[in-house]
C-alpha cells in the first residue's frame, strides 16, 4: 500500500538534510510501523553512499574521443528532408490541399445524375426533369445549394445560391437576395471548399482574439 505523499516528501527532505527536528521525529514514528518506507529510505541511503564513494572516479582523458570514434557515421539528410523540416507550414498546407482535392473530387464524381438540394425550407424536386422549384410564397432562410438540377425561384431565397453542375431559370432569380454562384467543373468545386475553409479559419481566429 502506498503511503501518503507527505511521508515521501519527508524522506526526501531527510536525505537532503533539510528536515527539521520535528519532521525527523514525525518520520521516525512513521518508519516504526511502515516497512515500505523503511526500505525506500534504506535504498536511498545506499545510492547516496555509492555516489559519494564514486565521486573520485574520473574517465580517461581520451574517453570522449574514443567514444566519438566508435559511433557510426551520420547519414547525410537529403535536401528535400531538410527543406520540409524548415518549412512545416508549407508542407502542412500542401498535404491539406491534396486531401481536400481527393475528397472533394470524389464527392464531385459521385451521384452525377441525382438532383440534390441542401438548405432549409420546402422546395419541389422533380428528379425526371431535374427541376428544383421554390414555390410561390415560400421563403428560404439561409443559403441554398442545388446539385445537378435546374433552379426555378417563384418564392424567395434570403441568402446565397450555389449551383453545382446546375443551371438557374434566370427569369426568376430576382427573388434571391444574395449571390448566385455556378460551379460546373471539379476544380471550381475544390476551390469553393478551400475558400470556405480559410474563411472559417480567419473567422475563428478573429473570434479567439476578440475573446481575449
TrEMBL record:
Top-level division of the source organism's lineage: Bacteria
TM region(s), chain numbering: 89-108
Keywords: Membrane, Transmembrane, Transmembrane helix
Keyword Membrane annotated: yes
Domain Putative zinc-finger, first and last residues per copy: 5-38
Keyword Cell membrane: no
Family: Belongs to the zinc-associated anti-sigma factor (ZAS) superfamily. Anti-sigma-W factor family.
Name listed for the protein in its UniProt record: Anti-sigma-W factor RsiW
Species for this entry: Halalkalibacter alkaliphilus
Amino acid at each position: 500500500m502506498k503511503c501518503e505523499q507527505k511521508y515521501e516528501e519527508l524522506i526526501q527532505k531527510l536525505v537532503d538534510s533539510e528536515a527539521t527536528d520535528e519532521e525527523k521525529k514525525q518520520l521516525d514514528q512513521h518508519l516504526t510501523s511502515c516497512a515500505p518506507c523503511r526500505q525506500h529510505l534504506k535504498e536511498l541511503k545506499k545510492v547516496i553512499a555509492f555516489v559519494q564513494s564514486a565521486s573520485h572516479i574520473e574517465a580517461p582523458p581520451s574517453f570522449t574521443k574514443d567514444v566519438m570514434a566508435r559511433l557510426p557515421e551520420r547519414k547525410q539528410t537529403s535536401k528535400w528532408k531538410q527543406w520540409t523540416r524548415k518549412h512545416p507550414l508549407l508542407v502542412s498546407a500542401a498535404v491539406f490541399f491534396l486531401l481536400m482535392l481527393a475528397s472533394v473530387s470524389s464527392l464531385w464524381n459521385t451521384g452525377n445524375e441525382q438532383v440534390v438540394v441542401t438548405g432549409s425550407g420546402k422546395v419541389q424536386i422533380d428528379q425526371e426533369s431535374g427541376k428544383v422549384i421554390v414555390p410561390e410564397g415560400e421563403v428560404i432562410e439561409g443559403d441554398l445549394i442545388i446539385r445537378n438540377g435546374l433552379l426555378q425561384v417563384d418564392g424567395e431565397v434570403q441568402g446565397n445560391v450555389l449551383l453545382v453542375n446546375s443551371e438557374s431559370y434566370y427569369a426568376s432569380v430576382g427573388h434571391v437576395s444574395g449571390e448566385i454562384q455556378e460551379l460546373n467543373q471539379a476544380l471550381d468545386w475544390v476551390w469553393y471548399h478551400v475558400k470556405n475553409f480559410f474563411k472559417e479559419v480567419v473567422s475563428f481566429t478573429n473570434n479567439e482574439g476578440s475573446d481575449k
